[in-house]
Amino acid sequence: MLEIILWPIASLMVLFIAATLKWSSRMRERVGFSFVLFVLSMMAAMIASVGLYVNDPSITSIEFSAALNFTVMMLGIGAILYAFITTKGGVHEDAWDHAWMYKLSVIALVLVNEILMGWAFSMISGTDTVRTHSAALPQLMNILSASVNSYWFTFTMSAEMVISLFYFRKQMPSEIRIMVASQAVIMFLLPTALIPFNGSSFGVYAGSVAMLCLFIYIFDYLYKNRNLKVAVSNYIVLLLGVFVLMMASLFYWSAGGGMLPLAFSVVAEMILYFGAILNAGAFAKTKTVAWLRKPTWAFVLLSLIFAGEYFMAGLLDVQFYGVAFLSRVDIAAIGQNPFTAILALPFDFIQYVGLVTGSIWFYIMMGTEMGTLVVFQIGKVHQLETKIRLVLVVVAYSVYSVLVPFFLFPGPSLSAIPFLGWSMGVGTSGAFAPALLIAMAGTYVISGALSFLFGGRQMCSMFCTAALMYQGTFYDSMKKFGNSSRVAKKVRQNKMSTLYMVTASVVWSSIFLAVLLSYLTSLGVINVSLFGVDPIVFAYVFYFNFLWYVIFVSIPFVGTYGCVTTGICHWGMFNQFVGRLGFWRLKVKDPVACVNCKTKDCTTACPVGLTAMPGSFIARSEFRSYKCIGVGECASACPVDNIFFYDVRNWVREKLQARHPDVSRDILPGIGGKQN
Ligand code: SF4
Ligand code: SF4
What whole-number distance in Å separates Cα of residue 373 and Cα of residue 138? Predict the structure, then answer.
C-alpha cells in the first residue's frame, strides 16, 4: 500500500536529480558550482533525515536530523557566499573541462542521494529492514549493501540513467550512447534486486543476454572503427572492467557469498556512468589512436572480455546446476606446508578456470558471441566455398562442441562408441582407461583419415572450436598484430621455429607420459594422480581449458591462431602433419600471374603468418605446408582470383576425367574451386 505513495515520490526525485545533473553541466563558474552542490547536499540531508527517523523513530533522531539539515544549509550558503566574494567575474567556457573536483562532487552527491533513498524507501515499504543504532563501519556497509541491492535503488537509478542520457544525448556520439544505455539495462536487471519478485533467475539470464549483446556490439564497433578517440578507448576498457567486477561479484553471491562486493561494483558502474555523462563532450574532443597499433590496450580488452565471460558462464552454471556445480572439480588442500601450497595454488587455479571454461554454458555463451561475429563475416567474404565453410563452422560448433558433449559426456554409452566426436583427442572424456581404447583409437583414425583426405583444415578450420573463435570479423581483423609484434614474428614462420620445436616436444612428451601414467593407473599397475586428478585429465584441462585461452587473449602479442603457430596443440599438430601427407594443397590456375603480381596479397592475408606461397606457386604451381590450415584467406585476398583448394575431391575428379572425359563433369562439377 505504501508503495503506491512511494513510487510517485521516487519518480519525482529521479526527475529532479536528472534535471539537476543537466543543470550542473551548464555551470561555468564557481558560484554556479557551489549552488548545484548546495541543492544536491540539501536533498541528501533531507532524505537522510527521513531514513534516520524511520530507522529510529525517536526525538533523538529528529533532533539529529534538524542539526544535520541546519549544518548542511549553513555550510552550503557559506560556500556560495565565499564563491561570490572571491570570484573575479567573467565566465570561462573551458572552466567546465577542468572542474574535476566539482564533477566528482556532483557524482558523489547523486550517489549518496540514491543510496539514502534506497535505504529509506526499503525500510518504509518493508522490503528490506536494515536498521542500525551505530555508525560503525560494518553497519554502514550493511546499509550500503541492502540499499544498492534493493529495487528502490536499481529501478530508480536505471530510470535516472535513461532520463539523463536523454538530456545529454546530443553531446555524445551515437555508439557511446548505445554502450551507456546498456549500463542502464544491466542495472535494471540486477538479479539481487529482483529477488522480491522471484525474478533473480530471470535477472541472471536476461542480464547475461544484455551483456553478451554489449560485447558483440563492442566487437563490431571496434571492427568498423580502427581509429578511436582516446576518451572512447578509455571508456570501453573501464566499462568492461566494471562489468567484470559486477559479474565476479554476482558469481560470488550465487556461490553463497554476500552482496557487499556487488554493491561496490554497482557503485563503480554508477561512477563510470555519470562520469561519461558529465564528460560527454570529451568523447569528440580527444585525439585519435589506431587501436590495432596498441597491443597492450587490445590485450587488456581481450582479457577483460574473457574474464567477464568466465564469470558470466560461472554464474549461469551455478544458476542452472546449483551450487553443487562448484564441487564437481577436485581441489588440492593448500595446507600449512609452503611447498605443497606452491603447487596446490596454481593447481586449484587451473582447475577452477577449467571447470568453467569446459562447461556447457561457457561454450553456449562463447558460441553465441563468436558465432554472431562469424555470421557477420559470412556476409563479407566473396568466395562461395569460404561462405559454406563458415556456415559449417557454426553448425559444427553447435553440434560438435555444445550438443554432443551435453548429451553424451560423461555417460555410460562412452565405452560403446567408436569415436569420441569432440575436441582434442586424449583426455577429453576422462582417464585413459581400457574402456576408452576403441573410442580413442577410432577418434584418431577417423580424424586422421579426414585430414589425409581434406587436410588439417577439417579440424583447425572447421570442427575445432578455435575455427569459430578466430574467424569472426573482429578476431579476423586482429591478424594485423601478427605483423607488428616481435613474438608473433618469431613464431609465425614458414618453417618450424625453435620455440615451436621446444613447445611441441614438451607438449607431446607430457601427453605421452600422462597417457602412460593414466593407462597404468587404470590397470592398477601403479597409482599416480595429481592431487587426486588423473594425469591425462589434468593435462587436457591445462592445455585446452587453460593455456589455450591464455594464448587466445594474447593475440596482440602472438598473433591469431597462436595454437597453430606456437605448437601447444598436439591435436592440431597431429591433424596438420597427417594433412601434409595427404591430398590437401593450395594450387594456382596460372603461375605466371604470380610472377607478375605486384601486391602479393596472399602473403599478408594468412592468419598463421605463412608467406612462402608466391615462390612455391611460381616454382610448382602449388603450395603445401603442415602449418596451412586451409582457412582460405589467401584465396580471398588474391586480386586475380588465382588460388584454388585441392583435396581428394579434385583428385577423384581428375581420375574420372582421365578415364571418362565426358561423364566426370556431370558427376563432380566444380568441386574445390575453379580449375583450368
Ligand atoms: S591447433 Fe588445435 S586448437 Fe588450434 S585450431 Fe587446430 S585443433 Fe584447434
Ligand atoms: S596467389 Fe595471387 S596474391 Fe599471391 S602472388 Fe599469386 S597472384 Fe599474387
Answer: 46
Q: Is the pLDDT of residue 10 over 70?
A: yes
pLDDT for res 666: 52
Cβ neighbours of residue 98 closer than 8 Å, sequence gap 6 or more = none
Which pLDDT band, with edges at 50, 70 and 90, does 420 fall under? low
Q: Name which of 467, 427, 474 is nearest 225 in CA terms.
A: 474
Q: How many CB atoms lie within 10 A of CB 542?
A: 21
| Ligand 2 lining (C-beta closer than 6 Å) | 588, 593-594, 597, 600-602, 613-614, 617, 638, 640, 642-643
Atom of ligand 1 nearest to the CA of 470: 5
Three-state DSSP class for residue 618 = helix
pLDDT tens readout for residues 469-489: 999 999 888 888 888 888 888
Counting from 1 in the atom list of ligand 2, the atom nearest the Cα of 618 is 6
Q: Which residues of 390-403 are buried (b: 16+ CB within 10 A; e: fewer)?
A: beebbebbbebbbe
- For 586, phi and psi rounded to 5 degrees? -100, 140
Measured in residues, the chain has a length of: 676
Share of the chain above pLDDT 90, in %: 54
Q: Is 572 in the pocket of ligand 1 (CB under 6 A)?
A: yes
**179, 236 contact by CB (below 8 A):** yes
pLDDT score of 243: 95
- Tell the residue nearest (CA) to atom 7 of ligand 1: 572
CB 290 within 8 A of CB 278: no
Query: Residue ranges of the domains in the chain?
Result: 1-87+96-148, 401-577, 584-667
The 10s digit of each residue's pLDDT in 61-118 is 999 999 999 999 999 999 888 888 877 655 555 565 667 788 889 999 999 999 999 9
Please state, in angstroms and rounded to a whole number, the distance separating the CA atoms of residues 414 and 479: 39
User: Residue 485 in 3-state DSSP?
Assistant: coil
State the average pLDDT over residues 364-391.
90
Element (H, E) at 645: strand 643-646
460 CA from centroid of ligand 1 (Å): 5
Report the Cα 453 to chain-centroid distance in Å. Answer: 36
Strand 585-588 versus strand 288-290 pairing type: unpaired
| Nearest bound ligand to the CA of residue 641 | 2
Q: Compute the distance from residue 303 Cα to the ligand 1 centre, in Å.
A: 20
The answer regarding whether domain 584-667 maps to CATH 2.60.40 reads no
- The residues pairing with 623 across neighbouring beta strands, listed in sequence order, are 586
- DSSP-assigned beta bridge partners for residue 533: 530
Distance CA 467, CA 475 (A): 11
What's the burial of 98, exposed, middle or buried (CB within 10 Å: 0-12/13-18/19+)? exposed
* Ligand 1 neighbourhood includes 469 CB (under 6 angstroms): no
- Bigger pLDDT: 449 vs 401: 449
Q: What's the CA gap between 613 and 454, in Å, rounded?
A: 19
Q: Which ligand is nearest to the CA of 544?
A: 1
* pLDDT value of residue 490: 82
Global pTM reads 0.88
DSSP 548-608: HHHHHHTHHHH-S-HHHHH---HHHHHHHHHHHHSS-EEEES-HHHHHH-SS-HHHHH-TT
Count of C-beta atoms within a 10 Å radius of residue 674: 12
Q: Is residue 26 over pLDDT 90?
A: no
DSSP, collapsed to helix, strand or coil, labels residue 269 as: helix
The DSSP H or E segment spanning 646 is strand 643-646
Which of 542-546, 658-662, 669-673 ranks highest by mean pLDDT? 542-546
Contact call for residues 310 and 299 (beta carbons, < 8 A): no
